[in-house]
Design brief:
Keywords: Hydrolase. This is NUDIX domain-containing protein. Pfam families: NUDIX. InterPro entries: NUDIX_hydrolase-like_dom_sf, NUDIX_hydrolase_CS, NUDIX_hydrolase_dom, Nudix_hydrolase_domain. The chain is globular. The strands form two sheets. Strands 1, 2, 3, 4, 5, 6 and 9 form a seven-stranded mixed beta sheet that branches. It has three helices and nine strands; from the N terminus they run ββββαβββββαα. The protein is α+β, with helices and mostly antiparallel strands. Helices cover 22% and strands 35% of the residues. It has one domain: Nucleoside Triphosphate Pyrophosphohydrolase (Alpha-Beta Complex). The longest helix is centred in the last third of the chain and has 14 residues. Strand 7 and strand 8 form a beta hairpin.
Length: 158
């Protein structure tokens, strides 16, 4: 069965025509010393029968410990990873959203591998606004088309 996730891509415009995206660095030992390809939009798996936007908002809150901004969201599209996983991305102008006061959600996994011990790790370990070009270099490959689509839509709107 194909995994289906949903996430929120917030963007904001600066006064000089630049665009920033809000992204999060993935937590846990695998990602700890990685930067390029180790960032993601806040997202997570849909539960059975769950509306994709509701899932995206729930996951935003679970990963960051803050509610997503109360703004209008538009479906940017559903993007497939090379693994077959699909992520439906919702986009919104997050101009008033401050990147602080996070309480990152946690997950448990066996660590170190094959040790029989379980350890807790944050789902993400930091989140920040960054220029779109830098965000595109840093997000996982499967999410780069979502950033490209955002660029296209913003160019059409101008």
């Amino acid at each position: 069965m194909v995994t289906h996730s949903a996430g929120i891509l917030l963007y904001r415009l600066d006064g000089e025509g630049g665009v920033s995206a809000f992204v999060a660095h993935m937590g846990g030992p695998y990602w700890a010393n990685k930067d390029e390809g180790a960032w993601s939009i806040p997202k997570g798996e849909l539960e059975d029968g769950e509306d994709a936007l509701d899932a995206a908002k729930r996951e935003f809150d679970e990963e960051l410990g803050v509610l997503p901004p109360e703004v209008d969201y538009a479906e940017l599209g559903t993007f497939a990873y090379s693994s077959g996983k699909r992520v439906t991305v919702f986009v919104a102008d997050g101009a008033g959203f401050e990147a602080d006061a996070f309480v990152f959600g946690e997950f448990e996994m066996e660590w170190p591998p094959r040790s029989g011990r379980t350890a807790s790790f944050p789902e993400v370990d930091r989140a920040e606004w960054m220029p779109l070009a830098r965000a595109r270099e840093r997000v996982v490959k499967g999410q780069r088309p979502a950033l490209d689509r955002l660029v296209e839509l913003l160019a059409q709107a101008r």
